[in-house]
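ugh ok fine here u go
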Amino acid sequence: MKSNVSARALAGLGLVVAFVALFFEPKGNIGVTARTINGHSTFDAGSNPIALVVSFVMAGVYILIFRMKDGKERRFETAGIWRRFGAFLVDFLFSMLIVSPWLALISLEVEARRTGVFAWTVHRDYLADGDTSLTLMSVAFAFLFVLAYFTAPVYLASQSPGAALLGIAFRYDTGKRPSLARAVGRELLGYLALCGCFISVPLALSNPEKRMWHDLATHTRVVKWLPSASQEDGE
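structure:
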């Protein structure tokens, strides 16, 4: 029980740090983009020391919560769709705050090697050689990182900051954790379910157990904690 309270407190603290950092963050893009619209090309990359420090904080919170027990002995029931969506938003924020500043820093270092001058923010109204490839590699790595961020708690029967904060957890119909391939497949299917939310959400709401596509396909379920018997009795 104490570990659940500690995990929720850590997740809440991390969320406060994230919002404070986003509010007071110096102006400038955090990330890297190269694009051409109507024949007009631009390249933007940006990071800053505050974002890098916040990245360490977010990663530390994630690791600490991941290592805590998720209260498997507690009573639970199937979690609702909106609670799950709230946990997803928290975790997506955490994951992007962890990885984006470092991917941007790599791009800034590449730019510094090209120009001989390092700057925390770069904006160009043209594309240099390698800009598009660098952006695509950054997007690909960010996608893989986010996939790993969400897969690890499922595969290793642990919890994420979003799950801890919203009081939800993963359970398996078989009683055993899924294989790595099935855990990864679950998250990929979850991405498709999110993209097709206008179909997947109504289907889940019509399901007696409120289970999404990826829950049914991988024999997993997302549950929310119920008060313990002692709490209900007022002890």
